Amino acid sequence: MAPTRRDFLKRSGFATASMMVPSFLKASIPILPGDVRPKVFVVIQFTGGNDGLNCIVPIGNDIYYKSRPNIGYKKEELIRLSDDIGMNASLQGLADLFYDGNVVLINNVGYPNPNRSHFRSMDIWQTASDEDTYLQTGWIGRLLDHHCTTGNCVMPHYAVEIDDSLSLALKGSTISGFAVRNPDQLKNVNTNPFLDHVARHYTGGSHVHNNVEYLHKLLTDTTNSTDYIFEQSKKYTTAVPYPANEFGNQLKTIANLINAETNTSVYYVSLSGFDTHALQRNQQERQLKIYADGLKAFVTDLKNTGKFKDTLIMTFSEFGRRVEENAGKGTDHGTANNVYLIGGGLKQGGMINEMPDLSKLVDDDLVYQTDFRHIYATILDKWLQVDAKTILGNDFKPMDFL
Fold first, then answer.
1. Where are the beta strands (DSSP E) in 210-283?
2. Can you tell me the distance from the alpha carbon of 343 to that of 383, in angstroms, rounded to the nearest whole number?
3. What's the pLDDT tens digit per position in 214-228?
4. Residue pair 166/179 in contact by the 8 Å Cβ criterion
5. pTM for this structure?
6. C-alpha distances in angstroms, 195 versus 78, 192, 224, 253, 280?
7. Domains (ranges, CATH) in the chain?
8. What is the pLDDT of residue 204?
9. Which of 39, 134, 317, 368 sits most deeply, having the most CB atoms within 10 A of its CB?
10. What are phi and psi of 214, to 5 degrees?
11. Share of the chain above pLDDT 70, in %
């Protein structure tokens, strides 16, 4: 069997779209026909399996307190969302946005036949696959591919991950997203004369016919995006104070690019530290505060510039945790979880489904009620204006939060 383009890229070392190449094109590249600027979608990934049951807490639920005698939260420790629902106090920034009507909370999100492996479950979320199906492209990567099949090929910077490497979610068959942790570093690395020469002399069109031409086009497209992101990052500097940590800096970078009206539709960022097998409370509270404080600054920034109404933020984790705490005052890998949606374009804020039923567990785990791909379908259809079935492969009914 002849090698595929993907095989060729893996062997040649160009498998990711974040390769560092020379800068020479002052790109001002429209993403869609007529230079129609897309709405912005920001994905925040909690890596490690966040314990959603200690984020959105069923106040007064006897099963909750019996299952969590050491790590459960009493009602006086929580931010009250209603008489029987509380939010972890470390999520104050998220609670403030919730009170303003800018947050939708969805409980019991998961998928059939849940997998408790970090790696496999994250692959399922990032590819939008069934539990027993293994895909090599991510759901956002297939969105990029789709634009090319319709004759509107996008550049790698259509989807930007603020990191050193690209997640599977942003990898497509024809085109992948662009990974960069710090745009300021791009100028220093774009100094290879050979790659500069190769990229300068690409004269092909949008369709490629062999591996060499494909690699040439990939190099040129990535060069364009490298230069473009660097130039755009200099156009706007926020005056909003962000938390002095890595996550805050990542959100600040995204805000600067959004406020510079960069032709990027999807941003992706991860926050790790949620694998809380022991001494959970302090560790989770620390990570939740990092998230909520950074999120509040980010939203304030976008509200100040009028960009929040066209920005949608989704926060998810690969799975939740077991209902019952373990002997180490932590929790083990679980199943269903909550998803947070934040934006100025939501129909209305609030909690749109019921809290988990702790009296009806399967293998001591929560039972999912909402397949995460219904959330994806809603975002694709109603926000990114793309037929969701084309990207997801199956017909997942959109929800009603947009």
1. 266-271
2. 11
3. 555 555 666 677 778
4. yes
5. 0.87
6. 56, 6, 13, 27, 48
7. 41-189+233-392 (3.40.720)
8. 54
9. 317
10. -65, -45
11. 81
